[in-house]
Amino acid sequence: MLGVLHVRKTLSALHNQELERETLRELLAEPYFVPAGTPVFQQLQFFQESGQHIAIVMDEYSELQRLVTPKDIIEELIGEFTTTIPRGAGSHGGWDDNGECIVAGSMPLRELNRWLHLQLPTDGPKTLNGLILETLEDIPDGDVSIRIADVHFEVLRSDDQAIRTVKIFRPPEASQKQQKRAQQ
Questions:
Q1: Contacts of 93 (CB under 8 A, 6+ apart)
Q2: pTM value?
Q3: CATH 3.30.1360.70 fits 89-183, yes or no
Q4: Which of 113, 114, 40 is closest to 75 using CA atoms?
């Protein structure tokens, strides 16, 4: 690996029509490598102190595993940053007519519990992705169904880093609670 090439610097050079091999080499930033087992809070602290915004994660055999940014770490800890409109009180709990709901794997468990009137455990992982990964002890390769705390989940989309999209099936208990609220 020669270095990290930042898009903004490259576009600036392209705009000035200086995009030649030598110019590209000058624009390369020295890569920052981090061992795969580095604790996340230690890595966040390094990002904050050094001003680095990208780390290249290497395994024990010095093979590239992935790139990680401060945003990646923060989203894994507290959930995905989103620009979507918040769900209103009139969204009838998020369930569709079939008693199903599709959510991002990065959704925080506390928010999911409030929104869908569930009782998923919150004493461990903080996101749905973390809860499912902890239960499976692996990232699933394909579609997987799993039951946690009487809630049935179906993993719809995942990649080599995380579970991205999950379908949740409303448990009978949540369905009854929602009907009682509607009657009041």
A1: 115, 116, 117, 174, 178
A2: 0.49
A3: no
A4: 40
> Taken in order 99, 162, 75, 128, is the CA torsion positive or negative?
positive
Amino acid at 25: R
The enclosing H or E element of 9 equals helix 7-15
Greatest mean pLDDT among 64-73, 91-100, 163-172: 163-172
Q: If you classify domain 32-78 with CATH, what class do you get?
A: alpha beta
What is the Cα–Cα distance from 120 to 19, expressed in whole angstroms? Answer: 53
Structure tokens, 167 = 């379908």
One DSSP character per residue, 71-105 reads HHHHHHHH-----SPPPPGGGGGG--TTSEEEEET
